[in-house]
Write a structure and sequence with these properties.
Blueprint (H helix, E strand, L loop, with lengths): L12 E5 L3 H12 L3 E6 L12 E4 L5 H9 L3 E4 L6 H7 L9 H7 L2 H10 L7 E4 L2 H11 L3 E5 L9 E4 L5 H7 L5 E5 L3 E11 L5 E3 L3 E6 L2 E7 L5 H17 L4 E10 L4 E7 L9 H4 L4 H10 L12 E7 L10 H5 L4 E5 L10 E8 L3 H17 L2
Parallel strand pairs: 1-2, 1-4, 2-3
Antiparallel strand pairs: 5-8, 6-7, 6-8, 9-10, 9-11, 9-13, 11-12, 12-15, 13-14, 15-17, 16-17
Helix pairs in contact: 1-10, 2-3
Bound molecules: adenosine monophosphate.
Adenosine monophosphate binds next to strand 14.
Length: 383
């Protein structure tokens, strides 16, 4: 389907599988350019649905509903990669799916993803397939401790993973994760984590926003800062790896590569996300073309937009625990010049749930980082 170079122009309807904040920001970008958006997910009154023209509320396995959805749109993209392969396949009978189902198939399973990367000579955290306790014990002997055991499928934000500090922890660790195929990885003592969001158009043209530096709290992204404070040579290596990943996977759309930068200065790929990424949210306010508009341009076969960064920027996630002492003080954050507030329209602020984010723009990345943290602190201090 991706060999079809026909441009999908403003006025057309775009289908989005998934209905979270990534789809919401995509829909905002798409509507701004005169497109219509239909979103499909098992939920209702969703972050994407609140902004879309049509919100379809059906199971991903309801293939009749998937057919009807795909018949009504010019192209299907997604904001959530864990949709079943059959959903993407079924949609592809009626409209191009971009990126295509093979990209989903590879990236929604850690083992397939890592095997793919290693087969193409790309640097990936050392790993082993684990199917039973004996595999785990052998794996720990070979790879050493500490290590991380992760479920192979459907994991995100640290869900379904456990750190193993010593061989004695093998048995309890094995019992604590869902019994399915797993991956054992070396625990990387990194100096920092970085990401590159790449975009690839229908004719293979490539764009990126440079390297973004990420810090996590409880395995969930906390703050992203751009440009990353890393040597230029490492930054261009990260971009080249990202370009190669998009080419080898033949992506039409967006894909984010998350890396560990080791203390010896080597890049290791941690994981791939075949869609806009949380670390790229700052492009919404800081760049000529955001990651969301670029996803739209890529899947519609339009020229990719300039990724120029107007000012250094930082983004801080707003998780549900911020609401624990009552409604955050929005006015306090909005009072700070250079700070932008994004909320996703989610009603229930559960502790680890991503409810929104703040972006700060400043003369330097370090100042943007300070400002965004101060703005987030003001949400609770001034309450
Ligand atoms: P993931 O869901 O695999 O992206 O993991 C979420 C976060 O957990 C990562 O961004 C890291 O901060 C941490 N993490 C995951 N795997 C490893 C590893 N092998 N070594 C060190 N930290 C890790």
């Amino acid at each position: 389907m991706s060999q079809n170079f026909r441009q999908i122009l403003p006025g057309s309807t775009i289908g989005v599988l998934g209905s979270g904040q990534l789809g919401r920001m995509f829909a905002i970008a798409a509507r701004r350019m005169g497109y219509r958006v239909h979103t499909f997910s098992p939920e209702s009154d969703t972050p994407t649905g609140q902004v879309a023209d049509v919100e379809i509320n059906a199971s991903y396995q309801d293939l009749d509903a998937v057919r009807e959805f795909a018949r009504g749109v010019s192209v299907v993209t997604f904001e959530f990669e864990n949709v079943p392969a059959i959903t993407a396949q079924t949609a592809a009978e009626f409209a191009p799916v971009r990126p295509d189902g093979m990209v989903l198939h590879t990236t929604q399973h850690r083992l397939r993803e890592k095997t793919f990367l290693a087969a193409h000579g790309l640097p990936v955290t050392p790993f082993k397939k684990i199917q039973n306790l004996t595999d785990l014990q052998t794996g720990l002997k070979e790879m050493g401790c500490p290590a991380v055991l992760k479920t192979a499928g459907y994991g995100y934000d640290g869900k379904g993973q456990i750190r193993i500090a010593s061989p004695e922890e093998a048995e309890p660790a094995f019992g604590s994760v869902p019994q399915q195929e797993m991956v054992l990885e070396t625990f990387v003592d990194f100096q920092c984590e970085v990401s590159v969001v790449g975009a690839r158009g229908l004719r293979g043209n490539f764009a990126h926003w440079g390297v973004i530096e990420n810090s996590h709290r409880n395995h969930i992204l906390d703050v992203s800062v751009a440009p990353a404070n890393i040597p230029e040579g490492v930054a261009s290596q990260a971009v080249e790896i990202t370009r190669t990943v998009l080419e080898k996977l033949d992506v039409t759309g967006l894909l984010c590569v998350e890396f560990f930068l080791t203390r010896s200065g080597d890049l290791l790929i941690n994981e791939l996300a075949p869609r806009p990424h949380n670390s790229g949210h700052l492009t919404f306010d800081a760049c000529v073309t955001s990651q969301f508009e670029q996803q739209l341009r890529a899947v519609c076969g339009l020229p990719l937009g300039s990724t120029e960064m107007l000012r250094p920027a930082a983004m801080a996630n707003l998780l549900g625990m911020l609401w624990q002492g009552g409604e955050p003080n929005w006015a306090a954050a909005c009072a700070l010049p250079g700070v932008k507030l994004h909320l996703y329209g989610k009603l229930a602020p559960k502790p680890g749930r991503k409810m929104g984010h703040l972006t700060a723009l400043a003369e330097t990345a370090a100042k943007a980082s300070q400002l965004v943290r101060a703005a987030r602190a003001a949400l609770v201090d001034g309450r």
